[in-house]
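Hey, can you fold this one?
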Amino acid sequence: MKILGINASPREGGNTDLLLDKALDGARSKGAETEKIILNKLKFVPCQECEIMADDGQCLVKDDMQLVYEKIKNADAIIFASPVFFGSLSAQAKMMIDRFQCAWRAKNILKKDIGYKKIPGIFISVEGSKRKDFFENSKAVVKNFFATINVSYKGELFCPGVDEKGGILKHPDYLKKVFNLGARLHF
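Sure. Predicted structure:
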């Protein structure tokens, strides 16, 4: 089983990254093969809302997003992790998700198979405040993204009130929960 972790935080080694690593550790504890993509290290542009689009759901802009499309298509499960910024997902997360507009169009307007198999996915998010509505905003976007690429939303972990880099390490309860979430993902 291949589990793909997608880190949408700009802060490597930060709370989102640590939580994602712990979830991937949980998946590996059950024998899964794991891989992590750090969106902030990739070179890609936001959706260009191209006037002419391919009818097969493929994006015409050729950059590092081609790698992301391929890795998601080959994954057996996804763990998507993003911090909350200004009440929603990070810019990195939103840029990546918006680049699936071509897939959304092909699937929902043209009614075509876009090549994404049905797989499970979970969402991990952390934020500095304690506003639950910020997580709900982020969750709604992630659920729409997952639906577009045939990922079944199987769970989540929201960690409010954690802002300082590495602050999540002071919350062993969150670390245990995310490990268990990763371990249960492929069953």
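Helices lie at 15-29, 65-74, 91-98, 101-108, 132-148, 172-184. Let me know if you want another pass with a different chain boundary.
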